[in-house]
């Protein structure tokens, strides 16, 4: 790593920051504790709720599900390396910490009245609102790919039932079958995730169905950690994995779920198992509230993560336009901490400090081997930009022992962050 940053240090720093005690007095408005509402109970929302509570606010988390199914490491579930139960976390720990957890669906934001409307009636008042809603799959973006088609060609890009369905389809496929993975253009959740999935599927085929093959159809020509993935594919999977970029006709044009066929700019392929990851955008709640611009994502102030379009509402995680920061769980956690401190400062009438944020991303290239990249982000020209001299990436040609340590570091980060957020 360059610039003195290590992945171990970045992980330890992020978790330690999240666990740090409050350093400021609780902000109060009119003699009462300031009220923060957080919408969304994923990595960003849970981290924001904990941080805001730690800073002395009265915090309510709104999340429709009784449990959270984590996306990081869910590709290992697809290939039978990990049970789905290891991905599922409840909200009891958050409730015990003092955060009020409301299991309901937010259906509207009344910014002028500072109120969140809930499905079935009722509302929650706030002094500041933090929205961490994740992403919505654009099922209308690919001709032929709708909700019914996604049940046959599961994207599994929200961990849960589709993850298990894709695992079942892979296990049931006869040896000699073709697994097709279609990848969208940027931006989307977890940029290196499709290539991790392809790597683990190739490892599964090598061990259990060696006459089969995985084909990646990509709507772009360049992707995250590309040299590292390509090195692993060449060394480990030979003819088991083929990558087709946009320049060679990889962009998906249409699907026929009934016939299990995918038409691309380069021709039509028929799959035994297909995972089609569609383009994405901020969820309907954000769009209806005026938080999203025409492209479907939410522009924010990079210092506070306050919406540039709706005052008093902050957007973090995958739904936000966060400059150079990727849409990742690690990013969402870092943004939550930054946003929470900014909210407390704003409620105190102080100017928030200019932040510097970290993202560290691990990707499995084999069941027990991984590659990683770390980025540091600062603010330039009113947007989050990468600081190249502080970044680092696993070296090409690294020894196998380093790849094994990276896999262990990734698993350790997941254990630490989920224990801190949900434990």
UniProtKB/TrEMBL annotation:
What organism is this sequence from? Methylobacterium oxalidis
Domain of life, per lineage: Bacteria
Q: Name one Pfam family in it.
A: FCSD-flav_bind
Cite the source lineage. Bacteria, Pseudomonadati, Pseudomonadota, Alphaproteobacteria, Hyphomicrobiales
Q: Which residues form the Sulfide dehydrogenase [flavocytochrome c] flavoprotein chain central domain?
A: 163-278
Task: Look up the coiled coil feature and give its residue ranges.
Answer: none
Q: Name the Gene3D superfamilies for this protein.
A: FAD/NAD(P)-binding domain, Flavocytochrome c sulphide dehydrogenase, flavin-binding domain
Q: Which PANTHER family match?
A: FAD-DEPENDENT PYRIDINE NUCLEOTIDE-DISULPHIDE OXIDOREDUCTASE, PTHR43755
**Stretches assigned to the Flavocytochrome c sulphide dehydrogenase flavin-binding domain:** 354-420
What name does this protein carry? Cytochrome c
Molecular functions (GO terms): flavin adenine dinucleotide binding; oxidoreductase activity
UniProt keywords (A-Z) are: FAD, Flavoprotein
Q: Which residues form the FAD/NAD(P)-binding domain?
A: 36-146
């Amino acid at each position: 790593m360059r610039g003195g940053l290590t992945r171990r240090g970045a992980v330890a720093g992020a978790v330690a920051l999240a666990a740090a005690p409050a350093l400021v007095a609780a902000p109060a408005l009119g003699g009462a504790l300031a009220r923060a509402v957080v919408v969304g109970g994923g990595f960003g929302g849970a981290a924001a709720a904990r941080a805001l509570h730690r800073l002395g606010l009265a915090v309510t988390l709104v999340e429709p599900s009784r449990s959270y199914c984590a996306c990081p490491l869910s590709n290992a579930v697809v290939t039978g390396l990990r049970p789905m139960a290891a991905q599922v976390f409840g909200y009891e720990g958050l409730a015990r910490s003092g955060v009020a957890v409301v299991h309901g669906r937010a259906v509207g934001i009344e910014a002028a009245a500072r109120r969140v409307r809930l499905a079935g009636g009722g509302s929650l008042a706030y002094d500041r609102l933090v929205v961490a809603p994740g992403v919505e799959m654009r099922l209308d973006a690919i001709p032929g790919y709708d909700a019914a088609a996604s049940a046959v060609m599961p994207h599994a890009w929200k961990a849960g039932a589709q993850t298990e369905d894709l695992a079942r389809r892979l296990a049931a496929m006869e040896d000699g079958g073709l697994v097709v993975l279609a990848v969208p253009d940027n931006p989307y959740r977890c940029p290196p995730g499709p290539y991790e999935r392809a790597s683990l599927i190739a490892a599964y085929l090598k061990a259990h169905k060696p006459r089969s093959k995985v084909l990646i159809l990509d709507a772009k020509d360049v992707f995250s950690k590309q040299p590292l993935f390509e090195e692993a594919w060449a060394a480990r999977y030979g003819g088991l994995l083929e990558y087709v970029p946009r320049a060679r006709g990889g962009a998906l044009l249409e699907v026929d779920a009934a016939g299990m066929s995918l038409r691309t700019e380069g021709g039509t392929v028929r799959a035994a198992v297909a995972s089609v990851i569609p383009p994405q955008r901020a969820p309907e709640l954000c769009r209806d509230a005026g938080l999203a611009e025409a492209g479907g994502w939410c522009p924010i102030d990079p210092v506070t993560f306050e919406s540039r379009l709706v005052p008093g509402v902050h957007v973090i995680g995958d739904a936000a336009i966060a400059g150079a920061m990727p849409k990742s769980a690690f990013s969402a956690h870092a943004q939550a901490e930054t946003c929470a401190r900014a909210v407390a400062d704003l409620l105190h009438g102080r100017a928030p400090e200019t932040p510097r944020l970290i993202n560290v991303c691990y990707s499995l290239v084999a069941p027990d081997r991984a590659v990683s990249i770390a980025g540091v982000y600062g603010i330039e020209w009113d947007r989050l930009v990468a600081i190249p001299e502080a970044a680092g990436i696993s070296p090409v040609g690294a020894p196998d022992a380093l790849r094994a340590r990276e896999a262990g570091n990734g698993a350790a980060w997941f254990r630490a962050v989920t224990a801190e957020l949900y434990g």
